[in-house]
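Q: What does the assembled structure look like for these inputs?
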Amino acid sequence: MTTLGPLTELAVAPAMPRRARLRGRTTRRVLRVLGWVLLAVPLLVAVVGPVLAPSTAPGGVPLQQPGPGHLLGTDVLGRDLLGLVLVGGTTVVSLTLASLVLAYAVAVPIGLLVAARGRILEGLTIGLLDVLLALPSLLVLMVLAATGRNGIGWLVLAVALVQVPYVVRLVRGAAAAPSCLATLEAMTMGGEPWWRVRIVETGRRVLPPVLVDATTRVSGVVGLLSAANFLGVGLDPAVVDWAVVVDQNMTALFLRPSAVLLPAGLLVALCAGTNLLVDDLLERRA
Amino acid sequence: MTARAGMRVGLALLQLVAVSVGVFVLTTFLPGDTAEVVLGPLATPEQIEMLRGQLGLDRPVWAQFADWVGGLVHGDLGRSIATGRPVVDDIGSRLGLTVVLALLAVVVLVPLVVVLGLYGGRHPGSPADRLITAATTVAHAVPDFALGLLLVALFALQLGWLPATAAGSVGLSGLTAPMLVLPVAILVSNQLGRLARQVRIGVVEADAAEHVAHLRRLGLAERTVLLRHVLPAGVVPSLQQFARTVDGLLGGVLVVEALFALPGLGSGFVAAVQTRDLPVVQAYALLFAATTVVVNLVADLASARLVPQAVRL
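A:
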């Protein structure tokens, strides 16, 4: 759905004066660097942070000013804010990866099978998935939480589930692309078994668009996971996670804004950086 | 045309049935007993048994489903476990705010989308175009609550221009206009990216079309060419995205409403989920899913009417 983006603009580029095009290119380069910086900060914090972090055990004096014991002060629950910021990114990054891997592990084989085997299966599967598409993603998470099914496992499962229909459609489309079909016909005529042609070889060929698609989904998944955590239907409140920390410290927004704004800012940087880079990537491919 | 439209309506009806089955299955049929969930871990077996009886959970599943659907058909969505009031009343008292919020967002959104999309589509690749695209996609990608908190920190905390929350207001009456500024701004910034991008692509394509070049050669005023020919053709492809936006505004404003304590449908749903009030959760989930189905149906029929040859229903 987002792939509609930059496909057509190169066709009209000559209409632009040369100087304007050059300036446009500079702007693009600046945005790319900005994207790398915005992505690197939260990612570095998430990966290296836990090693350096001070203890995040609750029970200290709540909402302390920054001082020698606590470099950034403490939050509502008396936890060290620096520790929370350094530890809280791990869940964001790992759960996002887990949900995406699960979604593609399920959806890519379905997409390949659907593209390979007949129209009836195709119609049925796509019809079924279209019904799934009618369910807003956050709704699925909320209903699961309302019936007591929350926690890491359900969270990953539900987030992965709502990605599946889109990915299946993408894989099916990529597998039916003309450049893909010509080679496959040759292989079939060479006497290869259908599964090697339609699953292994086609799978290899749809890999590049699938990987690009995965990068476009990252910020959506981060957004969905953190929205669930912010609404209190995601992770257990005892887990240290940026969105959970934001939710817990909302009441102290006026007293100690940093406890809310630091984790929120890191989430913003993560999504913004990813998206700037993905845009750049899509444009270069087109 | 009529036959195809009929089939599309049929698909929508099928989706509605599937969605209601889905909501029912998710809330009552999966492992895990509703009564246990509602009463929590401290409940005695007798209490659980009693609540099961009250909720009708000791009856066969198909009978429960028939009851529920029967109620739906008669406009009875059940009663809240927490308050005992009919769910319809709860939804009715919250509907107004959600509709007002959605309308405001659309009123701000549409001119912005048209102006940004038209500019970007006329000057593709220019610095301003790149900045607009980057800014709107980033605004779309950022989680609304995080963006919302940053805006609250700036405009309510730092500058003191706007209230940080609508907490304390009941229904629509207690709300003042300043309370709605930040929520609408977040909704708009969240939806702007995709829409502006689609209009921009539509305009790029329409602008490069042969008949448009011909109109220019004929000496039509540039204004007329842009507003009468390029823009309408450029807007049509974004109708589907617009439908998704309207759907999101009517049924998916959970986060923004929760953030500003606005008493709309979204916060009603979140409250019901947090108190495990299952009849209310079922009703809201069905309402939101049905909104999605209906809005998509309307969008499909509208685009088929506008560009009959381009859309296969």
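Residues 107 and 205 of chain B are 26 Å apart (CA to CA).
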